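Support request, please re-run this one:
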Amino acid sequence: MFEKNNNTKRDANPGQGEYNDTTEPGSPLRRIIAGAGQNPRYRNAHQPQPTPESQNTEQTDKSRNKKRKRLILTAEILLAIAFLLVLAVRFNWVDLSGAKAAVLSKIAIIYPDKDAAYEFLGEHYNSQGKSAQAIDACLKLVQRKPEDPLAHVLLGQAQNDAGQYKEALASFNQALQLNPLCFEANLGIGRTYSALRRHPEAIDFLKQAIAIKPRSAQAYLSLGMALSDSGRYDEAMEAFRQAKEIDPDIADAQTISGKAYLQAGLHQQAIDCFKEAISLDQGHAQAYFSLGKACLRVGDKALAIEQQRALEQLDPKLAQDLSELIRKN
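Re-run finished. Output below.
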C-alpha cells in the first residue's frame, strides 16, 4: 500500500556494508583530502623554510642572470644591426656609415676584442674628418694588432689628417718595417712629406708606391700634386694624365690637374679641367670654386658669379670665399 522510501538515510557504519560518505571514491571529502596533497601551500607548510641568507643569494643569482641575458641580447641585436648595415653599404642601398659607426662603437665597448670594429671606426672617422676619434680608434686597433702593417697605416692616416706629421711618419715607417712593400705606407709617407713641403722626398716615396701598385690613380694624383708644387709642371701633367687613364671617372683627377694648370698660368686648360670635373660630379664643390677662380683670372666675372651661386647650395663657406674674391676683382 505504501512504497518504500529509497532516500532513507543509510547507516554510516562501514562495518555494516552500507554507504560510507567519507571513504567512497570520488566523494567530496576524499577529493578535498587528495587535493590538499597537490596544493603547494599545503606541501610547503611541511617543508623547511629558506633562510634570509639563501633568499638573498637566490635573488642575487637571478639578478645576475637577468643582467647577463640583457647584455647578450643587446650585443646580439647590435651585431645583427651592424651586419644589416654592412650589407646596406656594401650593395649601396643607402649610406649609413654614421649609423654603422654608432653601432660599432657600442660593439667595441661590449666586445673590446673585435678588431674589425676599430678598423671600420678608424676609416670612418678619417673620412669624416673626425681626427681625435679616428686616432683613438686606430690606437686601440694597433694595440690589438701590433704586427699588422695596415693598422699602423690607418693610425698614420689619422695622425696626418690631424696635422701630427711627425707621429704620422713614425706610424708609416713602422708599417714599412713590418712590410717593406706596403703600398699604403709608401703612399702615406709621400703624402706626409708633401704636406711638410719636402717635395723631393715626397716624390721618391710616391714613385715607390707606384712601382708597387702601377694601376693606382690616387698614387699618380699625389705624385702629380708633388711635382706641380715643385714647379715640374710637364711631369705633373703626365702624372695626371696617367691617373685619368686609369680611372676616367675620377673627378679629383680633373680638379687637381686643373689646379696645376692654374699654377702654371695655363688658365684655359685649367678651366677645361674644372668643367670636366663638374660634369663627372655635379656635387664637387671644390671644382666649382676652382672654376670660379680660374674664370676671374681670365676676366670672366659673369661665369665666376655663376659658380658662386651654385656653391651656395653645395658649400656656403666656399661660396662666401668665392664671393670675396669676386668682390675684390
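The CA atoms of residues 210 and 219 lie 6 Å apart. The domain at 215-329 is CATH 1.25.40.10 (Serine Threonine Protein Phosphatase 5, Tetratricopeptide repeat).
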